[in-house]
Design a protein that fits this description.
Elements: H1 9-18, E1 28-31, E2 36-38, E3 52-55, H2 58-63, E4 67-68, H3 83-94, H4 102-107, H5 112-123, H6 127-144, H7 149-155, H8 161-171, H9 176-179, E5 184-190, E6 197-202, E7 205-211, H10 217-228, E8 231-234, H11 238-252, H12 268-278, E9 286-287, H13 288-294, H14 301-309, E10 322-323, H15 336-350, H16 357-370
Parallel strand pairs: 2-4, 5-8, 9-10
Antiparallel strand pairs: 1-2, 1-3, 5-6, 6-7
The structure holds zinc ion.
Length: 373
């Protein structure tokens, strides 16, 4: 079940306040200030509205960096966990960032294969998937808190960057030595004035560029991995290096153009919309209706809006240059403040010498449109 199918946040928060058993299994509630997620009926103190986040599944809460509550045990379907499962969960929480090997479990008197079967039966997911989601969530949470790779490395007790990268690779389930033979995306976190971005690329081109705090990023990553059957490994790739250099030039205002090869993917219609977005010059905007006309589907304004929102190559495929017909900014996955910033930045830097006269003309048009909000 995706977040789209959840009840409204108001309804879910009311259910939490009332500890309404009717919502048991419908959603999970996570509390940012404690880092814990619960069933809607948990009897811990009612969290403040501004601190809660809702998830459709325990797995999503784990991927977002939350740990299961010890009181209401959201992983355990209302039954008491068998001692083996409780032991496994305790072993993870003793050092959640560390990898647990079979030998570690055996040393703690846990038979690994019996424990795994019990875990799968009671928690509905494999122990491996649970632990990986827990660790991935922790690392992503660290990145979101603005921690540098160096800080993350130190947090996880590594003396060298290569040791940390190695551990990170193991976290993603592939030995670095074998990574070469595995179909994978290489990932790089890139600092920008608007916050850190995550970039994914393979030999075909850049496949994803998103702000790390974008809502639903974990799910997007999961579906990307599932759909394309690829793993994501932190790593080095020429397309990532080029993206980083071009982003630096973009944010400094030196150049608003990108030449890194991109892998658009998507359906034929999405592809057409994204291609149309690439044709919108920096410093200018289009309405959804204008983009719909460009792709030859003038009636498909809403579908264009959806395809615009499904764009995975933030900034490079400039979905931020599409605004409402009345000049309002409408929505943006990375947050409206970022859309506003990007458009203002491009207006300030687009009209450089050598730019086409047409650009300048469209630029003025854009300013007039934006002045309306
Ligand atoms: Zn709880």
């Amino acid at each position: 079940m995706s977040k789209l199918n959840l009840p409204s946040p108001e309804v879910m928060y009311r259910a939490v306040v009332d500890r309404d058993p009717a919502f048991e299994g419908i959603f999970f509630v996570a509390v940012a200030t404690t880092g814990i997620f619960c069933r809607p009926t948990c009897r811990v103190r009612t969290p403040k509205r501004e601190n809660v986040e809702f998830f459709a599944s325990a797995s999503e809460a784990l991927h977002a960096g939350y740990r299961p509550c010890r009181r209401c045990r959201p992983l355990e379907h209302g039954r008491d966990a068998p001692p083996l499962v409780a032991q496994l969960l305790a072993a993870v929480e003793a050092e959640p960032a560390r990898r647990l090997r079979d030998a570690d479990l055996t040393r703690q008197g846990i038979d690994p294969s019996t424990a795994r079967r019990a875990f799968k039966r009671y928690c509905g997911m494999t122990f491996h998937a649970y632990h990986r989601a827990r660790r991935m969530g922790l690392a992503l949470a660290g990145v979101r808190q603005g921690k540098s790779m160096l800080d993350l490395q130190l947090d996880h007790g590594f003396e060298s960057g290569s040791g940390f990268r190695g551990a990170f690779n193991r976290l993603l389930g592939t030995a670095p030595s074998r990574a070469r033979n595995v179909d994978c995306f290489y990932a790089r976190w890139i600092e920008t004035p608007l916050g850190p971005m995550l970039a994914l690329a393979d030999d075909r081109g850049l496949a994803l560029l998103e702000f790390v705090d974008r809502r639903g990023l974990e799910r997007e990553l999961q579906s990307l991995q599932r759909k394309l059957g690829r793993r994501i490994l932190p790593g080095v790739h020429p397309h990532l290096a080029q993206t980083e250099a071009e982003l630096q030039a973009y944010f400094s205002g030196r150049s608003l153009h990108f030449a890194t090869p991109i892998a658009l993917g998507g359906s034929q219609f999405q592809h057409a919309v994204w291609r149309a977005l690439l044709e919108i010059p920096p410093g200018t905007t289009r309405s959804y209706a204008e983009v719909a006309a460009t792709v030859g589907r003038p009636a498909a304004v809403r579908a264009v809006g959806r395809a615009n929102g499904d764009n995975r190559l933030c900034i490079i495929v400039p979905c931020h240059r599409v605004i409402g017909a009345d000049g309002t900014l409408t929505g943006y996955g990375g947050g409206l403040w970022r859309k506003q910033w990007l458009l203002a930045h491009e207006r300030a830097h687009a009209a450089v010498p050598g730019q086409l006269a047409l650009d300048v003309e469209l630029h003025d048009h854009a300013i007039a449109a934006l002045a309306a909000d």
